[in-house]
Amino acid sequence: MTAPTIDSATFEELKATTGAEFAMELVGTFLEEAPGMLNDLRTALGASDADTFRRAAHSLKSNGNTFGALTFAAQARALELAGLHSVKAGGTGPLDELDAEFARVAAALAALRYA
Amino acid sequence: MRDRLTTPARLLVVDDNKVNRLLLTRSLELQGHTVASAENGRVALEMLHRDDFDLMLLDMEMPEMDGFQVLEQLVGDLQLRDMPVIVTSSLEGIANVVRCIELGAEDYLPKPVNPVLLKARIGASLEKKRLRDQQKEFVRRFATPEVAQDLQKSGFSLGGKRVHAAVLFSDIRNFTALAESQAPEETIELLNTYYALMFDAITSHGGVVTTMMGDGLMAVFGAPFPLPHHSENAVRAAQEMIELIELFSHERIAIDKPALRIGIGIASGEMVAGYTGTNDRAAYTCIGDTVNIAARLEGHTKIFHRTILIDNATRLALGDRFAVEPLGPVPLKGKTETVEVFAVA
Prior knowledge:
Chain A is mainly alpha-helical and 115 residues long. In chain A, 86% of the residues lie in helices and 0% in strands.
């Protein structure tokens, strides 16, 4: 069994504690901000900027957990823990996987948003 | 009665991530607080110095200035070091969490922050801050800003250190007769006005009132913090005290009350300054021969019919910037040798 892209219990709790309207606005903010952070990961990798790399991965992990995007968060966390140098040595595979997972998260969140 | 845990407070949310910032701000606003936010540590410190906040929620991973650097800055900042900080981060590794606590963070909440836990932690932190503020307020009211600051900086311990300073004693002439001629309520009111005027003159010249006893007071210039011209400051304060008392007396005469007169004695030199008493109740004071001389000089203002008497050390420190009149060597009670006494015009 594969984990759902968005854990519905987490997302429902977010809506319940902050209000449905606010939760939807927050989804919009995440969908605007996340591509920039994903891009930061690649730029930091190219520039060998370990701090920015770790920070971007950290932020993506944190946001993923907020919306219940648990697979996405776990992938970002793996990048944060591995650090720039090990990713550099192992290739950009994990970054491509994170991008692909983000596409699924964005689609799922967009569907929830306009549901 | 309002639940004290939900008493609205002014909070600062610091996080570089927009989603986190909005989410935390929202949760706190829903709890009734007023919330401002900053996107990195540098901006946060600017805001803390500009506005009053009751508590800060601080992320650690941030560009420009991260949370650790903010905590380090707060430790060394007398104004801000009591600001409660709750770290909200998804830090990896217990060592980082320990580092936050060691740097003075009050609490650590992992992200995503649970709203119920958040409310409880903020309530507890604000309550602790309220108690600390109350304590500081008591210290401020019953000590002096300088002593309060000294206590805050170096903590309380009985004992003293040697300092070079000037000591000033002052009291009201014929106070007993004055007090007997009027209702006690009127005397209290008179004393309150008198002390307000004297405190103003003393503190505006860098002095610290260490003791008030009836109609008399003792002040020190140069402790707990050194003053480059402590003797001169003490004499200038004394002159201002005399001027203020004269103004006050004019007002009293206008409403058919007797004039007020004070006598002041000042001595300069080495003394021991610090806290005496017990660990439960103590006072900041200065002790030593210089202090005894100042007290005796104040007593002698009655004999010499002068308002301000100083010792030779004070006169030497003044140079020729003040007109002084030598009154010769005077035997003082408790002193084997005579003391050169001067009157300040």
